[in-house]
Specification:
The structure holds 2 protein chains of 2 kinds.
Chain A: H1 2-24, H2 27-42, H3 46-54, E1 62-64, E2 71-73, E3 106-108, E4 111-113, H4 118-121, H5 124-127, H6 136-139, H7 174-177, H8 190-201, H9 204-207, E5 209-210, E6 214-215, H10 225-228, H11 231-239, H12 241-244, H13 257-268, H14 279-288, H15 307-317, E7 325-326, E8 329-330, H16 340-343, H17 346-354, H18 356-359, H19 372-383, H20 394-406, H21 430-433, H22 438-447, H23 463-478, H24 500-518, H25 542-547, H26 550-559, H27 576-588
Chain B: H1 2-9, H2 18-47, E1 58-62, E2 72-75, E3 80-85, E4 88-93, E5 104-106, E6 109-111, E7 118-120, E8 125-127, E9 136-141, E10 147-155, E11 161-162
Antiparallel strand pairs in B: 1-10, 2-3, 3-4, 4-9, 4-11, 5-6, 6-7, 7-8, 9-10
The chains are: A mainly alpha, B alpha+beta.
């Protein structure tokens, strides 16, 4: 009993002692005492020595209110020698903050003078970190909850181990330099400038918006990304997008480490507001929404003789293969361009480049800011890709041409299927496949489906090969044998002449009967649309509507589209005349094609 | 108990255990008293917590070249006036010793705008309600060649720093 008591009291004494020591002889105090000692031995005069002998450890702090919220920086409590040039060769924390011309420091008579005096700027305005902290772990922001760890120095425990070592280095500090030095091409911030160039060159601007820099809408707005995310997240998001968010559709760009670093530094510098702008500037931006930037990637001068080569280089440099497949490189988001010359004409390509949605209304491809000459060079290169892959069997043909969209199982769930709108046709739906005449299916293969991602394979697959491919699809995916199709009573031409009255009647019927799925605007975004696969047709897809004749529209409306949610409206009492009005309405809401007449009239 | 202790101490203790008891009693006592002393000291030290608030009281005001000889330069934010005479330099408070207004420079020294206190060039009271002369602060040169004023340390009026 007494032994236990003795041990217990001794333990208590020990704990008291340790707590006492830690509380009253903290690390920063020991640092300061060490500094006073070393400075005494370096001192030249007795007065200096006496002054140092008198000094007691105390918390040093700098209060700065010029940069955003008031900052209290106690960094100099430990880094007490940061302004003492005699400690340049010592180890941290008793080390002089380096002087450098890049920081704007000047040298006079062999003595350096700082451009950014600590008393005026503090520390965290450049370095980040937790200014009030007195323990290294917390003041450096190494705990997972501090939003601003020391830039380029501190890494947090939960950061990915393979990325964490890459997040160190002076270059990361440039993100804070540009909060004041906003002028473009500021010579001390080359990494930010490089990141900005890459933001254009890698086509980030196509999908992402940064106020005053880009207008993309597909990806998240990055205007304040530097304020909301730490560098590890930015790095992981660029280097390996799916590792952060499994559903991300951001392609994996093949960037080198130093390129990712430049982009991370550039993005880290996007904080939505900076110290260089005044309240009035901010108010102006708030009122006007900011000037949309016209800047794009550095234009390349296109020489007429080297159009194709320069186009090829542009396609490679501008990260087209981050989404598309070009030869060996496959981005896994957008269609294969490896033999684009066989599938699309030059005019279509150029048109699609300039405004992707003019040819495919639901395309997610952004409109990029290239010059006309660059567009032409890239078009020239792509339309020159005309090598037909040699494929002996329909099986190999399907794998090479169709699988990317229609999928391994033929169910329209190919690797890029989800990024296409309209979705690729589900070839396993026998209701659809067997209700359409073989000629129409072959025509879909050979002439493509205008306004959608289905290209015209006519130049690659001749009639017999297309037929054998269709047979292969029927056997492998549809499985059910074809039935004899019943002849349907359908007009070849719309019997109701086009007139405003007919369109108004058509509109009434449309709103009553069709808008639930096809949407009140006819854009295929009705309230039920999300529950339906395949999605309701976008009837404002001019190229598509133009490509189908009246007979097919009557067929689809009156007898429905088997294998989809479209019901046979003849069962719901729609007469031929009402359908005629509907057809007129659908044709009327799409701009008239060149030549002024609709397919119906041809 | 006794068997256990014998094992631990190698059997050198006296058989009746009186020495052992006394020693254990001593150890317990030392532990308790030591803890008590530590706690007491801690309590006293904690009465004045080591914190820092506001702008630092020791600060740099720039290079000696910024203050030409003969200058009497008031630094508003820091509430001091820097006096340089030839190669000598000093820092005098500009906070009036009566109610804390900021005194201004006048031809004869300092003048307080609030209640008309007057001070001579060295900060001694020459008129008005001010009870004490203006304090002089310790000035030193830092290793990077800047002048550092320590407002926590008041020195004898008339003691200058030689440059």
């Amino acid at each position: 009993m007494r032994l236990a008591l003795a041990i217990g009291t001794f333990l208590i004494l020990l704990i008291h002692g340790v707590v006492f020591y830690n509380q009253f002889f903290q690390k920063w105090e020991r640092n300061q005492i060490a500094y006073f000692g070393q400075a005494r031995s370096l001192a030249k005069t007795d007065a200096e020595r006496a002054a140092l002998a008198e000094r007691k450890p105390a918390i040093e702090q700098i209060v700065v209110s010029n940069f955003g919220e008031t900052r209290v920086d106690r960094c100099t409590t430990c880094h007490i020698a940061s302004d003492d040039p005699r400690f340049a060769a010592k180890a941290h924390p008793l080390k002089t903050h380096p002087y450098s011309l890049e920081l704007g420091d000047t040298q006079k008579n062999g003595k350096w003078e700082r451009r950014h005096k600590f008393a005026e700027f503090g520390c965290t305005v450049c370095h980040d970190g937790q200014g009030r902290g007195l323990e290294p772990k917390y003041s450096h922001g190494e705990d997972e909850y501090w939003p601003e760890p020391l830039l380029g120095y501190a890494t947090q425990e939960h950061w990915r181990k393979d990325f964490a070592p890459k997040l160190k280095g002076k270059a990361f500090l440039e993100a804070n330099c540009v909060q004041c030095h906003t002028e473009r091409g500021f010579k001390s911030t080359p990494t930010v400038e490089r990141g900005r160039q890459l933001f254009y060159a890698s086509n980030c601007y196509g999908c992402h918006r940064i106020q005053g820099i880009s207008e993309g809408t597909i990806g998240p707005d990055l205007t304040e990304v530097g304020r909301t995310w730490k560098v590890d997240y930015l790095w992981a998001r660029i280097a390996d997008p799916k590792s952060v968010l499994a559903t991300s559709i951001m392609p994996k760009f093949r960037l080198k480490d130093d390129e990712v670093k430049s982009l991370v530094v550039f993005l880290k510098s996007r904080k939505g507001r900076n110290f260089a702008e005044t309240e009035i500037d901010r108010f102006k931006v708030k009122l006007t929404g900011g000037e949309p930037s016209k800047a794009g990637p550095q234009p390349v001068e296109i020489k007429p003789g080297e159009m194709v080569q320069q186009g090829e280089k542009l396609v490679a440099d501008r990260a087209c293969a981050a989404c598309h497949k070009v030869g060996e490189k496959d981005g896994g988001v957008a269609p294969d361009l490896s033999f684009e010359g066989l599938l699309k004409g030059e005019d279509w390509l150029l048109e699609h480049f300039k405004n992707p949605r003019s040819t495919m209304p639901d395309s997610i491809m952004p409109a990029f800011r290239f010059t006309e000459a660059e567009f032409k060079a890239m078009t020239a290169y792509l339309s020159g890709l005309r090598t037909v892959p040699v494929l002996s069997t329909p099986d190999a043909t399907y794998k090479a041409f169709c699988l990317r969209c229609h999928g391994e199982k033929g169910d329209g769930q190919g690797p890029i299927g989800q990024h296409l709108d309209p979705f690729p046709r589900d070839l396993t739906k026998s209701g659809f496949m067997n209700s359409k005449p073989t000629e129409r299916l072959v025509a879909s293969i050979r002439s493509g489906v205008p306004g959608t991602s289905m290209p015209a394979w006519g130049k690659v697959l001749d009639e017999t090969r297309a037929k054998s491919l269709l047979d292969y699809i029927q056997e492998t995916f549809t499985k059910e044998p074809r039935r004899e199709l019943k002849a349907r009573d359908l007009p070849d031409r719309n019997p109701v002449p086009m007139s405003p009255e007919s369109m108004t009647r058509g509109q009434t019927t449309f709103v009553n009967r069709c808008a639930g799925c096809h949407g009140p605007k006819g854009d295929g975004k009705g309230v039920n649309a999300l529950d339906i696969l395949p999605r309701p047709r976008n009837l404002r897809n001019g190229a598509f509507v133009e490509s189908v004749n009246d007979r097919r529209l009557f067929d689809s409306i009156l007898y429905g589209v088997q294998g989809t949610a479209m019901p046979p409206w003849i069962d719901y009492g729609l007469s031929t005349n009402e359908v005629g009005d509907l057809v007129n309405f659908i044709r009327g809401i799409n701009p008239k094609p060149k030549g002024g007449q609709h397919a119906a009239a041809n | 108990m006794a068997v256990n202790l014998k094992k631990i101490s190698g059997g050198t203790l006296s058989p009746d255990g009186s020495y052992r008891r006394r020693m254990l009693g001593w150890l317990t006592g030392v532990g308790l008293v030591g803890s008590g002393v530590f706690s007491a000291i801690s309590n006293f030290v904690f009465i004045k917590p080591r914190t820092a608030s506001g702008q630092p009281q020791r600060f740099s005001i720039g290079k000696p070249e910024d203050f030409p000889p003969g200058a009497r330069m008031a630094l508003g934010a820091q509430r001091i006036v820097v006096i340089r005479e030839g190669n000598r330099l000093a820092a005098v408070s500009t906070t009036c010793t009566q109610l804390g207004c900021i005194v201004g420079l006048s031809d004869t020294g300092f003048a307080c705008p609030c209640h008309g206190s007057r001070f001579d060039q060295d900060g001694n009271v020459t008129g008005g309600p001010a009870p004490r002369p203006l304090p002089w602060y310790k000035v030193s040169l830092t290793p990077n060649g800047e002048i550092e004023v320590d407002k926590d340390t008041v020195i004898q009026p008339g003691s200058y720093l030689s440059l």
